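Let's practice the habit of predicting before peeking. Look at the sequence and jot down your guess about where helices and strands might fall. Then scroll down.
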Amino acid sequence: MPVAHNRGCAIFREALLLVDETTSSLSIKQFVAYVVAHELAHQWFGNLVSPGWWDYLWLNEGFATWVGNLAVDHLFPEWDIWTKFISDYTTTGLSLDSLASSHPVEVHVKEASEIREIFDHISYDKGASIVRMLASYLGEETFSRGLHRYLNRHIYNNTVTEDLWAALTELAGKPIVTLMDPWVKATGYPVLHVDHERVSDEEAFLTVKQERFFSLSPGGDSEAALRQLDPIWWIPLSLLTSENASQPLHHSLWEGGRGKKVERVPLPSELATLGDGRWVKVNALQTGFFRVKYSEPLLRALQPPLLSLTLRPSDRLGLLDDAFALCKAGHMSTPQLLALLQSYVNENSFPVWASLTTNLEDLRSSWRQSLSAAQASEEYTLMQTYIQKLYRPIINALGWTPKEEGEDRQQMLLRSVVLSYGGSHGLLKDVIAEATRQFHEHLKDEQGAQIHPDLLTLVYNLAVKFGGEKEWEAMREIYRNPKSQEQKIRATNALGKASDPVLIRRTLDLALSDEMRAQDVYQVFASVGANDAGIEIVWSFLKEKWSELDAKFGDQFLMLGRIVETATAYFATEQRVDDLTEFFADKQTAGIERKVQQCIERASSRSAWMQRDAQATLAWLRAHA
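Done guessing? Here is the structure:
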């Protein structure tokens, strides 16, 4: 286990505690700061007050995740933690909770094997996100006083979720249990279908309809049965408008958890007509845990404030992530998505580009796998050209080195993200050449200090990916004799980026050797699983070595599930879905059963996405790429 917390004592692995002011990257400093804050938060949420049973795990982990970010934001306000929170926690919670195989935040645990399965993005990320949603609605002072009362009332005792709601109700004067029960006791979350209803030249409404969001519709009787269980979720709706882009308008919808699933929200008279600079953005600062599907006129009206960066980074990120999720689920077409992304050509925020890159890689990888050998050359090149056009302007603007002294470190993180993606698939030859040059210069310098810490990962990855055995062997030597734990982790990841199948297999063999610590093994599977050249190899390796993996990691907390998840993370064809399903059909999967089902469901979602949109996407790329 990387971290353990006890009353008055937290134990960390070195890489999650130690940083070097000179050589550590900003991303590692941010991660270590968060991990330390998260574990110290457990002194209150977990040790001072403990959950009454595993059902209430989220009272530990959801709160420690939220408080950890709250503390880091207080200490380092320049890091823009709450925008990063959206991409690191809210979107991951939304992604997992969109699956039919998800579970409620508060989930009944009947057997010991079920415990490890709930240490996931629901208990942590969804838990933290709904805490943030409620804190935003009640206000920081009221929420803090409610937490203070909860902790003092139950000091050195065990609690259930209703104990927290009771304390908050007393301070807020609102029926918190009624508002929040659907968010913790039901699986899933809603997508809001939002339309503009013009009544007259001076009067208009937003019509808001909610339904449970699925990334892959189960269909038939299965979906009907699931939807019968859906609650009516309370929605704290906040709106930004062209008339007031910084002060949200607040509405509380479906407070009683009853009534029709459609509400009407009045708009300022200036917004009776959209366009010509008039727009409405739902879910200000992305504090709500739901998706938003705009009607075509509403979405079209939002493109100018995206281009001009009038919307704040958190809102630009939310629009982007919702669009990808809606596209994958069939609520929006891939051509519509690709057209919307052109509104991000002026984007300058690191978290937004990081989210764009993660989502675009999911699309690119799925697209590549869907093509036959005969199609691959022309059609894959069209997608590559589209991505190149999207990334080239920001790469040209940033370059490899800061344009001025004292550059914001967030810009260095942005530089790392866009250079890495621009080079990783052979898109930009100049990026690859510069990374390779820096790597070989790096090897000559015993101190290895000439590469900026925030660029070291991308240099390592590109050098191994577009190099050969010489570069791979050099990276293995760095892995064996690192100057820090951070460098060892970077080398571990880089080894999995090789393009040569022989080197990929050697990397996987290294992962199961005595040379690698057990806690680092899943990182190799994650790296190879995200490598175009490694997707099939790592799956074959997992099947071949399953008995060994099960024996070695089956009893280790979370590890076997992570290996399965990362090895299959980019599966996107019907053939791989069938293979995955067939392989695990006769395996003992106690402790990872839910994880396996989630992997199958995600792969099925990607496969359905490509089957549905492939031809329309190809036509759009031919016309625009």
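How did you do? The mean pLDDT is 93.
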